[in-house]
Each structure stands twice: as C-alpha cells, then as structure tokens.
Design goal:
The chain is of the alpha/beta class. It is built from 14 helices and 16 strands. The chain has helices spanning 8-27, 34-43, 66-69, 71-85, 101-112, 127-136, 199-208, 225-238, 254-257, 294-303, 314-321, 323-327, 335-349, 371-375, and strands at 32-33, 91-95, 119-123, 143-146, 155-160, 169-174, 177-186, 189-196, 220-223, 243-252, 268-271, 274-276, 287-289, 292-293, 308-313, 358-365. The strands form 3 sheets. Strands 2, 3, 4, 5, 10, 14, 15 and 16 form an 8-stranded mixed sheet that branches. Strands 1, 6, 7, 8 and 9 form a 5-stranded antiparallel sheet that branches. A 3-stranded antiparallel sheet has the order 12-11-13. A hairpin with a 2-residue loop joins strand 7 and strand 8. Helix 4 packs across helix 5 (101-112) and helix 8 (225-238) crosses helix 10 (294-303).
Length: 382
C-alpha cells in the first residue's frame, strides 16, 4: 500500500501498542480474538486510535462526518429531537460527539425553536476528542461529560457513526463449518488463525446471519455482539422512561449485508483519508470499522424490550425532517452563501454519496415520531 508515512512520534506510539498487543497474545497462549485486537487498537489507554492523541476528524484526520459538513445536519436532527423532547424530557445524551460540532448545532437550533435543554450529556471514550469538545463547548453550561450511561433516562439519545466503531467478531466459513478469526503472531507480524466458535458466537451467528449454513466456503463476515449489547444497554436505560435513540451510521439490513459479493466482509480501515482493508497496518494510528447490520441492532433492541420506531436511509430521514426547508432559509440568490450549504445537503442526501449507504434506526419508548418521519419508515425491510 502507498499510504502517508507517520511522523516518528506517531510511529513510536504504534510500536508501543503493537508490543502491548503482542504481550497479551503471548499471555493468552498465542492468540486473541479479533474483537479483542480491534478493541486494543482503538481503545487501549493512551495508545489506541480513539484514546490516543492523534487527530481524528477533518483535514488533518482520517475521515469526515456529517456534522462537520454542514450545520444543517444538526439543525435537522434538532427538529426531530424537539418533537421527542415535547413528549419526554428536555435532556439529550450524545455518544461519540466528535469535535463537538453536532452538540453545538443541535443546542443552537433547539434554542431557536424555543426549546431549552436541562442537560446535554456527552459520553466520549476518546481523551483527545473529549478535550476538543470541552474547549469547543465551554460556553454552553448545559453540556456535561460522563464515562458511562446513566442507569435511567428520559429524552433523546444521538449516536452518529458510533456503532461502526464498536469491536466486531470476524468469522469465516470453512470446509468444516464456521470458525472464529483469531489474531496471532507469525514471523514477527500479526496474522489471522482460526479457532472454533464458542456457544455464544454460534447463537449470535444463527440469530444474525440468514442462511449461514449455505454460505460459500471462504466467506468472511462480522458478528456484532458489542453493538447488540449496546442496544440492550439502551433498552435498560430507557426502561421506565420515555424518549428515543436516533442512531445514524453506514450499513445494511441483513438481507443486503450477507450477499455473495461481500465474501470478504465489510471491515475497512481509514488512515489520513485513505481507505484500505488491512486491520494490522499501524495499530493505533488508523480507524478500524465495520458496516452496521441494522437488522441485528433492531432485533437486539426488541429482544431487550425497546421497540423499533423507525428505519430508513439517511436521505429519507433528513428530507422528511425538513433539511430542504432549512436550506431554503438561505437565499438562493446569494450564491456565495447558498451554494456551500446546497452542496453539503447534496452530499448528505445523494444516493451516490451518503444518502443511501447511511441509514437511520430509531428505537424508543412511549413517544410518537413526526408524521413525515413515520411516512418515510421502511422498518419492514429490516
């Protein structure tokens, strides 16, 4: 691969993380689950991608998210949030708040609608991003940070590109059946080796992957027990409360996720705005993600007692929530100010950009979504 060369400090940090992972592999008898490798690569204290100090977002980072493209994204989310808050409580929790841009845009837009928040709580695992958020949002007194979910909650939960960063299990179909992808060390480098599935992963496979017994030999895919557990935790948090969680991410329903052409799985890495498939490249310096199986996430929520309120692609959600109306609040005759917003909205809703690949799953208790969102619902396709 031809990728940008890291500076010496970054390379040294990656080498320290590789030594940490190698030591755990040795302690565990020569191999660890890929999910554990991914967890360490992303979240190992001070060295993981999200817990270290490297820039993640924007021109100096590795990827760009919707809130960084235009404030109209947050303003549109605020419209839906306002409708949910009116039926629950004036509180918001955001998971993985990035640079804090979405928080500011949502709070600002809600204020313009006359909705005063009691609290806007951010749960952020990245020390570098939390520091950026605290600096960017220091003038907003309703913003606070927690390290974990509260035991109970009413209001709105926002999670933009959170599920895709949760560690996944890799499994492969072999001549002898499904096996778990483990990480070992061969010739001084990380490498894959197979091990039998335990009972828990066998159950997850059967629940998550349709027709798994008839898939092609050599087929690699992801199981999402951590994501499913997160959905269960949301259900527990909302138990006895009222409100909804809006989860936006890239992915597919199960009947699209496990197609023959995805024989290599969906795992992807992002380094300095380059995408590639090698999860062992410079651990700690690159993002590692997998597409979200939205059917699995919906089932996990329902299994835990949290109903699915809606599911649709991002384009349908944003258009139904009124992003077009918000765009037209900028005078089209003023090209210098209007065109950047117009191009940004086009990127968010175009099927060739983010409009179709990104989906929106809404789960919640005892609230009704706006009628336009209900009409756009495609949860029957999950």
């Amino acid at each position: 691969m031809s990728l940008p060369v890291p500076d010496p400090d970054a390379l040294a940090a990656s080498q320290s993380l590789q030594q940490l992972i190698a030591a755990e592999i040795e302690r565990d008898g020569g191999q660890i689950a890929f999910s554990r490798f991914m967890e360490l690569a992303l979240y190992a204290p001070r060295l993981g991608y999200y817990s270290g100090g490297a820039s993640k977002l924007g021109a100096d980072g590795d990827f760009t998210t919707a809130p960084e493209i235009t404030p109209l994204f947050g303003a549109t989310l605020a419209r839906v949030a306002a409708a949910i808050i009116a039926q629950s409580a004036p509180d918001i929790i955001e998971f993985g708040a990035g640079t804090g841009r979405l928080a500011r845009d949502v709070i600002t837009a809600l204020g313009q609608q006359g909705v005063e928040l009691n609290s806007y709580t951010i749960i952020e695992l990245s020390g570098e991003l939390r520091a950026r958020q605290q600096e960017a949002l220091k003038d907003l007194p309703q913003v606070r940070w927690l390290d974990a979910m509260p035991e109970s909650f009413s209001g709105v939960v926002l999670a933009n590109e959170v599920l895709d960063a949760m560690p996944v299990e890799l499994v492969i179909r072999t001549a002898g059946g499904w096996m778990r992808q483990m990480v070992t060390i061969e010739n001084g480098a990380f490498a894959f080796v197979q091990a039998p599935l335990g009972a828990g992963l066998q159950e997850q496979l059967a629940r998550q992957v349709p027709e798994h017994e008839h898939m092609l030999e050599g087929y690699v895919t992801e199981l999402h027990p951590v994501g499913a557990g997160f959905m269960g935790s949301l259900a527990q948090m909302f138990a006895g409360g009222r409100g909804a969680a809006i989860l936006l991410d890239y992915g597919f329903p199960a009947h699209e996720y496990y197609l023959d052409q995805r024989i290599g799985g969906t795992l992807m890495c992002h380094y300095r705005h380059h995408a590639h498939p090698d999860p062992f490249y410079l651990p700690g310096l690159q993002d590692i993600t997998a597409h979200v199986d939205f059917t699995a996430m919906a089932l996990a929520a329902q299994d835990a007692g949290l109903p699915v309120l809606g599911y649709m692609n991002q384009a349908s959600f944003l258009l139904s929530a009124g992003i077009g109306e918000l765009l037209l609040e900028n005078d089209p005759e003023q090209a210098i100010s209007y065109l950047p917003h117009s191009r940004a909205v086009q990127k968010l809703v175009s099927p060739a950009e983010m409009g179709e690949l990104f989906k929106v799953l809404i789960v919640g208790n005892d609230v009704q979504l706006p009628d336009a969102i209900v009409r756009a619902d495609r949860s029957h396709r999950l």
